[in-house]
Each structure stands twice: as structure tokens, then as C-alpha cells.
User: What shape does this take?
Amino acid sequence: MIGRALIEDFPILQQKIGDAPLVYLDSAASSQKPRAVIEAISRYYEHDHANVHRGVHTLGSRATEAYEGAREKVRRFIHARRASEIVFTRGTTASLNLIAKTYGEAKLGPGDEIVLTPNEHHANLLPWQRLARQTGARLVFVEPSPEGILDETRLTQAISPRTKIVALAHVSNVLGTIQPIQAAAARVHEVGGVIVIDGAQSVPHMPYDVQALDIDFLAFSGHKMLGPTGIGVLYGKYELLKDMEPYELGGEMIDTVSLHEATWRDPPWRFEAGTPPIAEAVGLAAAIDYLEGLGMNEVEAHVLRLTESATRALGEIPGVTIYGPRAGRHAVLTFNIGSIHAHDTATVFDSMGIAVRAGHHCAQPLMKRLGVNSTVRASFYVYNDMQDVEALVAGVHHVKEFFGDVFG
Amino acid sequence: MSLDDLYRQVILDHAQHPRARGVLSGDDVRAIDLKNPTCGDHITLYVRIQDGKVQDIRFTGEGCSISQASASMMADMLKGQNIEAAERVKDIFLKMIQGHDLVESEEETLGDAVALKGVAQFPARIKCATLAWKALEQGITDHSS
Assistant: This one.
């Protein structure tokens, strides 16, 4: 069932770009939404909308129930111990900033260390850069292999008694490599620090168990997992969240307020000031239902298979440079064709209906290490199939033909 | 809009063999760095302005064929022009890229760069074509201030 047949469920994927059927290979940037998600959001607005946690009226209760129901659904999806460990945010970026600003500013001081890799997405680099500047802490970068794989021993050895935070992307948004986060978690806990996982590219693609992985904080986005934009999740262990200061202040997050003082509610609401993204939470819950209907084991196997086929097929075409490993890639395939600029490739692809990402993928330090300014990235998800891999291969041949004489 | 309208032969030619690539130095040279942060393209444009004239113009940097061709055509065309004429060419170019029709005399003024007209139909690529010209704009402003 998984694969091309799902296109029935995704209205947007049924269109043509010019004369060519759309081949959507940019899900790592943002996935498309099944009708079930779109309809859940419409239904919510047509029947149940009001503000949450306030009104005593019927709609207020329905909205609250829907919103808190979504929280429970996310809890189950990532196997958190309790729903109060699930904070709704604007997305991965907001979640990571929240941790750096609250937990980070409270816990870090001069000489403390934050361990990360040079391959992180800007969202998992810049908040730590600022935190280090503000607190006098130091960023420690663990060197991955040229293919982007972190050696487990090297990673655990980089964690010292001064390490307060290890911040890692579980899966790289450029190289598709998966990192040994369990070993890092075990080691950082020995020295009394915490592990922060950027799960933007992993949570949408695999069964997740934050307790088994022993993750302290996990950040991910709804829109990369068939859900709407504008909602993301910060998972945090309750014993950490309960001691953290709020990030934003305002309505809904308070216990009592006087003119000169206020006290905060318990997590997760302490971190959700103002009216939250209620409809978006409803949409995310519908996305989780949809993914669970497919089965996350099947989702993972399907996407791994497609990525591997595409990597093999492109690897056989003369002139194609593939960045990162040839096998075991999760969802993303990053490449260039000869000396043809990624934007020129993407424009030719677009003329064939193929949507890919071209650019630096918000990972400029990594691009520099790869020795390029920009690359093409094709990424796969549940609605893609071997036909899309074939379209990509045809696209590469067409680009070579079109620019062949010039850039060969 | 077909690909051939975007990637005209003259554009590919300039992209493959860019004119005026290189560095200028000296007190009378202005160097302008500009980036397109969304894609990573960057240019350093060197302009030597003397006696109200663009005496020499060079560029370095990296980018797609459209940005490289555009920089090359611009440099080719503006070397030796006086500042007012250079500004006029720049204004006409930016007008064309934004999708406005040009009159015949304006098209003649642009020379080879008219080939970039098709870019207007590819909104995602407009910034590629304007990068060098925005650098020039800044160079002229710096000079006059």
C-alpha cells in the first residue's frame, strides 16, 4: 500500500507542473499533507474551534480536548512517559532555541562544554553559538568521517566531565547519516550532562522511543511528517522541564499573577504562553494517525529502500558526485552533476516536474567541508516510489544532455 | 516558457567563458561583496571609477550559470562607460528582469544582456541574474557619497 498508491490520499501530488506529472522529491524540506490531515483541520474549524484552557462553554471544552488529545497522541508516538513531557512549539527551530535559552542559560558557565558536530543544521548550531558567547562555555566539535559518520568511540571520548550538553542531529539533513545517539546519551549521563536531539529528519522516518534511547530533549517539526506548518514538539524529561524557567511570558502559562510577581504553571503549559497552535495540533494528530496506519517500520524500510536505489542509480552515472555514504542513507540523497551549478540542475528538473532542493541546506559549515557552495538534494517519503527514482535518473541524464557541451 | 528561452546560447557562452573575471587593486578601486544568502552564491565586484568613468571592472566569486553570465555581460558592457550611462544600463536591466517590456532603443543599450530577458519568467532565478548588478549599484552609490 505504501508508495505511489498513496497519491490518492494527497490531492497536491495529483497535479502537473507544465505538462509533466509532479515528482515531489523535497519532503526533507517539507512533506505534503494527506486529505485526512487537511480535513481534520477544516473539521476542527467548522465545528470545534474556541480558545483552549479558558472557556467553560462547549466549544472551549472540545477545543481543549482536541488539543490535549493531540499531546497524548504525540506522547504515544515517541513513547514518552507522560503527556506533560510534550511541549508544543512552532517547530524544531523554536524547540532548540527554547532549550538553549532556558535550560542552557541556567545551567552553563565559563569553561563548560557543548559537544556537537560540524555537520549540524544552522538551527542546531546558532543557538549553541550564542549560548557559548553568553555564558563563556565552549563549543567542542567532534570530527565525523569524510562521509559524515560519527565514530562512536570518538564521540564518547569528546564528552568530558565539563560537558553539559551534547547536541546532535539524529539524522543529517544533507548526508542522511544516522548518528550513534544512544552511546552519546549513556556517556553524557555519566558526567551529569544532557543530550539534545535534533529529530527533524529522524522522527518522521522511524519508530521512536525516547525512553529506550534515553534522550533528555528532542526537537522535531510537524510539517516534515505529513502535518501542518507552524507546529513542532519539544520533548523533555519531566524532571528537567519542571525546574526550567519559562521561555515566553503571557497568558495561559501562569499560576498566579500580581502586579509585581507571578508564578508559573507546571510543564508543559509553562512553555506555551499565549494561544497555542490548536488547529495545527489537531492536524499533527491526524498525521500521526496516518503514519501509524502505514506503520513506522514500513515507513522506514520503504524510504531506506528508495534512497538506496536512487543512490545506486545516480552513482552509476558518469559525472555525478554523491556527498555522503553510498549505503544506509535515511531519506536524503545529495549530489551534483559535473560542474553544473545546483540551481541550474534544479531549474532543468523543475521543467520536467521534478521538485528538489538546491542550495546549502542551512548547513554552510558542512558545505564548506564538502568543498562546494551548493548541492542538489532529493528526498523521499511515504508517497514516493521507484517511478520517482526513475524520473530522477531521467532528469540527471537530461541535465547532462542540456548542459553537456558547456560544463561536461 | 521553455528552458531554451532561459538558457540562451550566449548565456551559456558567457557562463562557460566569463569575461572580466579577476581582481583589481589600488586606492581608486571599490570592492563590493554581495551574497545571495538563500543559495550561497557570492560575488566580489571590483570597479575602478576615474574621471566619472568606469575605467575597469572585474569580478570573482561563485554561482550558477545565470549569475556568472549576468556578471560577465555586465562587466563586458560597462567597461569604459561614464557613470551616468552605466547607471542607465543598470536601470534598464533591472526593469527587464522584473518583467517589464523594453522599447527597442533600451534593448539595444543592453546588448548581450537582453538574452537574460527570459529570467523574468523564472521567479526563483531573478536574484541570480541581479546579484552582480546590485553590487554595481552599491559601488556607484559608494562612489558618489
Q: What stands out?
A: The mean pLDDT of chain A is 95. Chain A touches chain B through 19 residues (CB under 8 Å).
